[in-house]
Design goal:
single chain, 508 residues, alpha/beta, Purple Acid Phosphatase, chain A, domain 2, HIT family, subunit A, 2 domains, 6-stranded mixed sheet, 9 helices, 22 strands, 19% helix, elongated, binds 2-acetamido-2-deoxy-beta-D-glucopyranose, binds zinc ion, RNA lariat debranching enzyme activator activity, Cwf19-like_C_dom-1, CWF19-like protein 1, HIT-like_sf
Length: 508
């Protein structure tokens, strides 16, 4: 479509340094041509006498803003006096205050939602604060239209809490930074661009998606960008230039295009304590001390030897007789389990390495020589049930095995069959590099899948399996590596469709 893009500049906290900002804007416009508007997030006014004097020059008309400038209201008590009314108004020529919260649609059709100030910690909210109720009414206003697809731009002063999840890490204290209500607002409004300030930090998060892959129709992605303060001495970026075609005049296919580096939605995390799924039965037993989770080799070795793999693994979780170490706790099954390391049923002679959360074992009915299993020490049903530290260790085992197989001229195929299984077993099957290409292996899975009436679908990179297969959902998961260069490991993930047609799969 030949629509003209709107040329936009976004800016972090100005704090009264208007002349510095506009000088910078003018030099950019000289180089890159005119922009249509300048959007300012964070605190626009400053509290110093210098800042106040500078503002006087603009207010009196002595100095002029060279571009249509839109600003948010006060984020602190000290500058509330500049915004005597809650609704938007022109503060001086070319500088417009948007208002406490609302939506602004420009002549181009560009839709900009905005929220001034900070989330109130108490009620009634002071004038520089908003409440979650204020934001709910904004959401309602926008989303009552059933055709609502998102907004082009969202401006907030405060960061949305948790926006960094699944993304690149920001330079902020993630414990204290951000507002939950802004996060929920951003989740519901699905802005294509979301700008925020107040943290004195420049942060451009990887774009995130607003739909669940394979389960929902594609939606436009969101980009969150936080900007630093104008003229900050550390020279952090405070001005961001971009072109945007308003979504209302965009082709649907173009609008929902997903960039290569898109990540999972940071606001829709499936965390164990948040899902509606019933808690697994082991939680009540989680408080059991560790000693019983480990098989005891003392009986046949005469002395008390640590059942480690001899490489120092397993430190810290053995219940030393002197009691100096805190025992580690692992979830336990309610009944007998073949794979719980602590269980009497476990076949000890197959175990080859024990970590803190996972262990490695030889497969009993090996498909190929060196077919191994990575298993959690605790009783977890599937990868999507694992705590993050267990996943982390599992990844370490995976990468260690990849290099091991590589040294043998092999690459590995990893798969997990999560169907009526009690205890997660990640199967690691090595195949000679010379036998087949990654494409051959993929093809084999797809063909075999079709024969079993399983529809295997590749899921994109940066996808959290939990998003597609919430705990409790059966799935079959395959992961391949390129086999050529371990540094550029190619991850290809397949998932059976969740309609339940995919079973049974042949037992290995
Ligand atoms: C106000 O902004 C517009 C463009 O955004 C510009 O053309 C105009 O010259 C500005 N006004 C002044 C007084 O500079
Ligand atoms: Zn178990």
């Amino acid at each position: 479509m030949g629509e003209q893009p709107v040329r936009v500049l976004a800016c972090g906290d100005v704090e009264g340094r208007l002349t510095a900002l506009f000088n910078r804007v003018q030099s950019i416009q000289k180089k890159a041509g005119p922009f249509d508007l300048l959007l300012c997030v964070g605190e626009f006014f400053g509290t110093t006498p210098v800042a106040e004097a500078e503002w006087q020059q603009y207010q009196s008309g002595l100095k002029k803003a060279p571009i249509h400038t839109y600003v948010l209201g006060a984020a602190s008590q000290e500058v509330s006096k500049y915004f005597s009314i809650a609704s938007g108004c022109e503060l001086c020529e070319n500088i417009t205050y948007l208002g406490r919260q609302g939506v602004f649609t420009g002549v181009s059709g560009l839709q900009i939602a905005y929220v001034s100030g900070q989330e109130a910690s108490q009620e009634p909210a002071p004038s520089h604060c908003f409440t979650s109720k204020d934001l709910s009414s904004l959401v309602e206003l926008l989303t009552t239209n059933s055709k609502f697809k998102g907004v082009d731009i969202l401006l907030t002063s405060q960061w949305p809490k948790g926006v960094w999840h699944y993304g690149n890490p920001p330079e902020v204290d993630t414990k204290t930074c951000g507002s939950n209500s802004i996060a929920s607002l951003a989740d519901k409004l699905r802005p294509r661009y979301h700008f925020a300030g107040l943290e004195g930090v420049h942060y451009e998060r990887l774009p995130y998606r607003n739909h669940v892959v394979l389960l929902e129709n594609a939606q436009p992605v969101s980009r969150f960008i936080a900007l630093a303060n104008v003229n900050n001495p550390a020279k952090k970026k405070y001005l961001y230039a971009f072109n945007i075609i308003p979504m209302r005049s965009m082709d649907q296919a173009e609008l929902v295009k997903q960039p290569q580096d898109v990540t999972e939605n940071p606001y829709r995390r499936v965390t164990k304590d948040k899902t509606d799924a019933p808690e697994p039965s082991f939680t009540t037993e989680e408080e059991q001390p560790v000693s019983q989770f480990f098989f005891d080799l003392t009986s046949n070795q005469g002395n008390r030897k640590r059942p480690s793999d001899g490489r120092g693994r397993g430190r810290g979780h053995f219940n030393d007789r002197d009691g100096a170490k805190q025992p580690r706790r692992h979830p336990q099954p309610t009944g007998p389990c073949w794979f719980c390391l602590a269980s009497p049923q476990v076949e000890k002679h197959l175990v080859i390495s024990i970590g803190t959360h996972c262990y490695l074992a030889v497969a009993k009915g090996a498909l190929t020589p060196r077919h191994l299993l990575i298993l959690p020490i605790g009783h977890y049903q599937s990868v999507v049930d694992l705590a993050s530290e267990v996943v982390e260790e599992m990844e370490k085992y995976k990468s260690a095995l990849r290099s091991f197989y590589k040294s043998k001229g092999e690459r590995c195929i990893l798969f997990e069959r999560n169907y009526k299984s009690q205890h997660l077993q990640l199967q690691v099957v090595p195949v000679p590099l010379s036998c087949c290409t990654t494409e051959d292996i993929k093809e084999a899975f797809v063909v075999q899948g079709q024969e079993q009436k399983m529809e295997l679908m590749e899921i994109p990179e940066h996808t959290d399996l939990k998003q597609i297969a919430p705990p409790g959902t059966p799935y079959f998961y395959v992961e391949l590596d390129s086999g050529t260069n371990s540094s550029t490991t190619f991850r290809s993930i397949f998932l059976c469709n969740l309609a339940g047609r995919c079973w049974p799969v042949k037992q290995c």
